[in-house]
Design a protein that fits this description.
single chain, Double Stranded RNA Binding Domain, 5 strands, alpha+beta
């Protein structure tokens, strides 16, 4: 399964969210840290340990970077 992760550069850091899952969002001072925080939440939202998720940078659009969260549900 593959879902989108959107990371946006804000004035005071970075925000990240998964558009397909309500409430699956976070904020941090760096891009790397906000992705780490989103992955840490994966056990709650996706019921999948973060170690089983691969993050793949897909494209950049203006101040947004689109990542793909790739995981196997098994």
């Amino acid at each position: 399964m593959v879902i989108d992760l959107i990371v946006k550069k804000e004035l005071d850091g970075y925000s990240a969210y998964v558009p397909s899952i309500k409430g699956y969002e976070s904020w941090a001072e760096s891009e790397e840290r906000v992705i780490e925080k989103i992955l840490a939440m994966s056990d709650f939202y996706l019921k999948i340990p973060k170690e089983k998720i691969t993050v793949d940078k897909a494209r950049k659009e203006d101040n947004e970077i689109v990542y793909k969260l790739v995981f196997d549900k098994n």
